[in-house]
């Protein structure tokens, strides 16, 4: 009897194991280039840390919990929003039964889980490596481009610093705090889009184009470019450039505005400088102006938005414009940092798209 039962169970168990193996093989194949880029970048960090005697700044676990926590938050938000949508708009006869069945059939699937697993596991390693590299920039190549970028900004904008052109329009404390709010919102938007694309099954090619462009932009622009054009930004100008501080009026305005409204940028800037001066390593440490990765990612988000639907395309384009304004108005970046980010992110996006268009590209899910 026991043998009969074991024989009866085996056919059901074996296909289940085979299907799990097939899912794992498929997702490893699809994400092979993504994983190879992350591992290569992590390896480059460890080599650079050894060469420049900066092992104390190299860590691959800074974000080991952050992505898990943010994913948990977005899952909770999605569950609540989906429940509200079902109750208010779909209104089935048996809301709870419909909701549970719909979630299990459409969202809580094995395919979606395996598709997101490589990104979920590798992205914290990549983000940790990037932050570590960022804290090492002044060691590899000390800040030396700020005066040049400030001059170029003036040349590009008719002899005037860009923040001075913006000031008559947005130089009001309430507008400043609003711009600062959207600038800080960038972190939430980034994690939201990462969560969306990590578990998306809608467009496999677009999803992979996003992730490869995301990785390559941080590597080529945020690391290589930032090291070559090592600069601190207008808010730190007086600390890295000898002579007249041409951005003192901007900093003075922001400090005065903080007396009546929150200007979170000022506290963040002081925190970053303190971390730099005291060789601290943390999740949001590191100073780098050129190119602006805030702007690079905001531009990438807009590209994904437009490829998805007009509504997110418009919303994320407006968001990118606000980020560009915030880069300059809050003293984080020279305007050309943002321009360079856009100009350089686009060809990466295009090249990745061409690569994924090849017949032998594995983008199926």
Structure description:
With 365 residues, the chain is mostly helical. The longest helix has 31 residues. It is globular, with a radius of gyration of 24 Å. The two termini are 42 Å apart.
**Overall pLDDT score:** 92
Hey, roughly how much beta strand do the residues contain? under 5%
Question: What count of domains describes the coordinates?
Answer: 2
The largest sheet, given as strand count, sense and whether it forms a barrel, is:
none
Helix content: over 70%
| Total beta strand runs | 0
Helices and strands, in order, run as HHHHHHHHHHHHHHH
Rounded to an integer, what's the Rg over CA atoms?
A: 24 Å
C-alpha geometry: globular
List the helices and strands and how they pair.
Blueprint: H1 2-30, H2 32-51, H3 66-90, H4 95-107, H5 110-140, H6 146-156, H7 162-170, H8 173-198, H9 204-228, H10 237-240, H11 248-257, H12 264-277, H13 293-308, H14 310-329, H15 335-356
Helix pairs in contact: 1-2, 1-5, 2-5, 2-9, 5-9, 8-14, 9-13, 9-15, 13-14, 13-15
Which descriptors would you attach to this protein?
single chain, 365 residues, mainly alpha, 2 domains, 15 helices, 75% helix, disordered N terminus
Give a short overview.
The protein is mostly helical. It has 15 helices and no strands.
